Amino acid sequence: MEQIALFLPVLYIPWILKFLWGPIVERFHSVKYGKYRSWIIPLQLIIAVIMCLLAFWKIDHLIGFFIVGVFLINLFSSMQDVSIDGHSITLLNFSERGWGNSVQVGTFWIGYIIGGGVMLTLFNLIGWSNLFFLMASIYVIAAVPIFLNKTYGKKNEKQENKKSIQRWITVISFFKQPQVILVLFIVSAYRIVEGFIRSILPVMLKDWGLDFGQIGLVLGIIGPISVLLGAIVAGLLINRMGRIKSLLIFGGLQLISVFGYVFLSINTDLHSMTKMIPFIVIDHFISGLTTVALFSVMMDWSRKSQPGNDYTFMDCVSVFAMMLGTGISYGISAKWGYSINFIIALPLIIISLYIVWKTYNKIKKNNHWKDLVKS
Fold first, then answer.
1. Distance CA 26, CA 34 (A)
2. Which of 18, 57, 102, 305 has the fewest Cβ atoms surrounding its Cβ within 10 A?
C-alpha cells in the first residue's frame, strides 16, 4: 500500500500540471479547423499510436517501458482534456451545464466501463497485445465524430479567439481575479473526499478476497453504471436545486457511503462480491451526483475569453486534492486498517461541507463571479 501511495500519484502528475498546457492550447491553434478541434483530433491519434507500441511490451519485461508509455498517455490525454473542457464551456450556456456535465460524466464512466471492466475481463481471453490494439482502435473510432463535425461551435470559437490570442500569461490573469483562492479552496475541499473514500477500493476488495475478474465486474462495470445513473439524476435536479444546495446535499450523501464501508469493514462475513455490490452501487451513484454538481460550478466560474485555461486550472487543483486524499487514505489503511480509514472520513466530509458552505456564500457576493455566472 505504501508503494501504491507513492507510485500512483506519479502517473497523475500530467493531470496535476494540466494548467501548464492551458496557455498553449488557448494560444496556438487553427481557427480554420476549429480552436479546440485542431488539438483534440491529433492528440487522439497520438495516444492510439502509443497504445499500439505498448501492445509489444510483455508483462514479465522491464516495467520502465510500460510506465513511460502510461505516463505519455496521461500527458497527451491531459492536453486533450484542456481542449475538450474549453470546447464544452464555449458551447454550453448556464442552464445547459447541468445536463452537459451529466453527459460528460456519464460518457466518461461508459469509457471507464469499456476501458476498465470490459478490458480487464477480456485480458484472459485475447491477451495483452490484442487488448492494446483493441483499445487503440476504439481511440481512432472515437475521433471520427469530431472529425466529421467541422462547423459546430466554430462561430463561438472565432469570437473567443480574438480575445484569447492576446493573452499568453493566462495563469497570472487567472490568479488576479478577486477571491480566486477561495474558489480553489472550495474545489480542493470537495474533491479531497473523493480520493480519500474511493481510491482505496480496488486494493481493499482484493484484500477482502475478490479476484481480478470480480473486481473488474464490480468497480469496472457495476460501479460506473451507478455513477452514470447518478449523473443523470444530477442533471435533472441541479438547476431546480441550485448550485450551493446541490453541492451540500449531494456532498452530504457521502456520509451514507462511508457508513456503509465502515459496516463492511467490521463485518467480515459480508466480504463476498454479491453482498458488497449494494454498498458499491450506492456509493458510486452518490459519486455521480457530487461530480456533476462540482463540475457545473467550475464551468460557471470559467471566464468566457479563456474557458479551457480557467476550467483546467481548477481541475488541476481538484486532481491534486484527490491525489492528496489518495495518499493519506492508503497511508492510514496500511497502518491502522480500512475501518479506521473510513471512520476518519466521516468528520472529513463534514469539515469539507462546512468549508464549501461558508466559502461559497462569500464568493457569491462578489460582482466578478456573479457576472461570470450570468454570461
1. 12
2. 57
